[in-house]
Amino acid sequence: MADNENDSPPEQIEAELLARDGDTALGIACEQQRRAEKLGDSAAAAAWRRIARAIVPIELERLRRMLDETSGVTGSDTYPAATHVTVAADRDEAPKSDGRLGSHAGENAWSAAATASGGQIPPKVVRRAVTTTNDVERRRRGEPMSTSRTVPRITICGIPELGGHSAAGVTHVLSILDPNSPDPLEFAAFAPHRRLILRFHDVIEPQPDQIAPTREDVERLLVFGREVSETPEANLLIHCRAGVSRSTAAAALILMQANPEWPASMALDAVAAIRPRAWPNLLILEFGDALLGRNGDLAVAAGAIYRRILARDPEFRHQMIDAGRGREVIAAYRKAD
Predict the structure, then answer these.
(1) The whole model's pTM is what?
(2) Helices of type H across 180-263
(3) Which long-range contacts (CB under 8 A, 24 or more apart) does 216-220 make?
(4) Which burial class, exposed, middle or buried, applies to 7 when counting CB atoms under 10 A from its CB (0-12, 13-18, 19+)?
(5) Where do the domains of the chain lie, and which CATH numbers do they carry?
(6) Does residue 198 sit in helix, strand or coil?
(7) C-alpha to C-alpha distance for 180 and 197, rounded to whole angstroms
(8) Model confidence pLDDT, tens digit, residues 50-96
(9) Which tens digit of pLDDT belongs to each residue from 111-127?
(10) Nearest CA-CA partner of 165 in 252, 227, 100
(11) Contact in structure between 233 and 171 (CB atoms under 8 Å)
């Protein structure tokens, strides 16, 4: 095979590429697809997309074997990422949280998930989540917290759900909107609150007619998050269009900033408990990782979230690759160091 895959048409190297390590092969295919798209070569882009789609089932089988080998591992503070909160991330079968961190319903969802999982959710992961929700309730009652830092109460939703939170006592709102989207009318019914509005598309790579999130956007997000964490009795609502990608990434960063001693997996698992269909925007997480000095662990933890979604819905990988978000698919299959 040529040293540079660009030197050979995709059809000539497909068999050799499929024989490679799946993680490496998928990375090559997605990268070449992006390059072809940037050059306007639709035929080559389609060929690379087909190769990427052929690689993913191979990696899915590897993932299933890995899950079989690692499920039930509960003896350490460090767990194989793919085993975290397997049931709680399932749209159809998981017990549903009410979308809030720091609520009794959220705590009940974690406890029910632990029972329903048949032992696949490590008990310490459940205890950490329950401790987090209990800490918020203690803070609200003026009782000592079990950790030294404040965990703000967080709700994540999409625009269609905003009306249901107008009477929830929200003190802060982080709105992440498309650049040309109108301001949601539902906020007219909310009590006075502090609000930050960020505008960018839900993309992780530069695309024609799409505005990607920037480092400056994430800096503003974190400044706002620090204000929330320093406000007694703060009740933060974070929303984007669907409450799945941009808002969940923002929530994870705010939690990590408020609790720098947490492992990244704890913040991502907490977000998945609030919003089981979470697929956090990787570019937002990468900017936040750099600003918070996390040395890449947020991207690794996000890979576990992506992996759980793809294990449940393998076809979703095609939508993400076609949407230019192949790097997130790669993160789902990347082997832990």
Answers:
(1) 0.64
(2) 215-229, 246-258
(3) 217/284, 217/287, 218/253, 218/284, 218/287, 218/288, 218/291, 219/291, 220/196
(4) exposed
(5) 5-70 (no CATH), 81-295 (3.90.190.10)
(6) strand
(7) 12
(8) 777 776 666 556 555 554 554 433 222 222 222 222 222 223 333 34
(9) 443 333 333 333 333 33
(10) 100
(11) yes
